[in-house]
Every structure is written in C-alpha cells, then in structure tokens.
Write a structure and sequence with these properties.
The chain is mostly helical. Helices cover 80% and strands 0% of the residues. The protein has helices spanning 2-40, 44-47, 50-75, 83-99, 104-127, 133-152. The chain starts with a helix and ends in a 10-residue tail after the last helix. The relative contact order is 0.08.
Length: 162
C-alpha cells in the first residue's frame, strides 16, 4: 500500500514536471539562445541593446504575420507551401511600385491585389481542379518565386531613402 502511494506521488510529480516543461520549454529555449549568443559576442551589451532588439523585432514581423496565416491553414487541415514566395512577390511588387513613382497606398494596394490573386489561383486549383493542396501550392511556390526574381532582375529591390 505504501509503495503504491509513493509510485502514484512520483507519477503525479513527473506529470507536473512534464506539464511545466511543455508550457515553459519554448521560453526557456529562447532564453538559452539569448544567453549563448550574448556570451559568444565580443560585446554582449551591443547584442542586448535596445536598438538591436528593435531591429530584430522589426524584421520578424513579416515572418510572424505569415506564421499566423499558416497556423490558420494548418489548423483547418490544409497546407500552403507558397506563403514565403507570395510574401516575396508582394514585397517586390510594392517596392517596385513605390520606386516607379506610385503613391505608397497604390503600391500597397497593388501588392495586396497580387497576393490575393495568388490566393485565388491556389484556391481554384484546389477546389475546382481538385489538385492536392501540397502539389498546387508547391507549384505556386515556384511560379511566385520566379516572377518575383524576374521582376526584381535577380537583385534586391530597395526602397527610396534606404
């Protein structure tokens, strides 16, 4: 009887630790990565500076927005492999529009329109043509990436004043 109580207590404790690690594991991993890079830098204060953290956060916004959209698609049981290429294509369209003298609002509208067009083509291929989402979006990945590279001339497209 005493052995059963001890075993139940050990199992309950291990379940509690597992639950705790499941909830805090990603945060602990992030803190570990920050600590390692801080220690590997010659000047850790530069790595942890507010300006550097601002730059990191500004650069991850695009990835975060794409990840939110992908989360919704994956939760619904689908997949879209063309997200990154579509983001690149819409960025190139928007930047080229601004560089050509369009107003920022018009250039942004053109980028959104192209992104929506890519989504419509994917959606029609999947729903009407019954193409497997993996294959349809894999094909669109190549098409969107190719168009973005072609429009950009295989170069980085910079905005005026950057």
């Amino acid at each position: 009887m005493v052995a059963d109580v001890k075993q139940n207590r050990i199992l309950a404790n291990s379940a509690w630790v597992q639950n705790w690690l499941n909830r805090l594991g990603p945060l602990l991993g992030l803190l570990l990565v920050i600590a390692v890079f801080s220690l590997l830098m010659e000047t850790p204060s530069r790595y942890l500076s507010p300006n550097n953290l601002r730059v990191i956060l500004a650069q991850t916004v695009i990835v975060a927005i794409g990840a939110i959209g992908m989360t919704m698609i994956i939760i619904s049981g689908g997949i879209d492999l063309a997200v990154g290429s579509t983001i690149a294509l819409t960025g190139v369209i928007t930047a080229l529009g601004i560089n050509s003298g369009m107003s920022p609002g018009m250039a942004l509208a053109a980028g959104i329109l192209v992104g929506g067009l890519v989504g419509v083509v994917n959606g029609l291929a999947i729903t009407r043509l019954k193409v497997v989402p993996f294959i349809a979006t894999l094909g669109m990945l190549g098409v969107a990436r190719g168009i973005a590279k072609w429009l950009a001339g295989q170069q980085t497209v910079n905005m005026p004043g950057t």
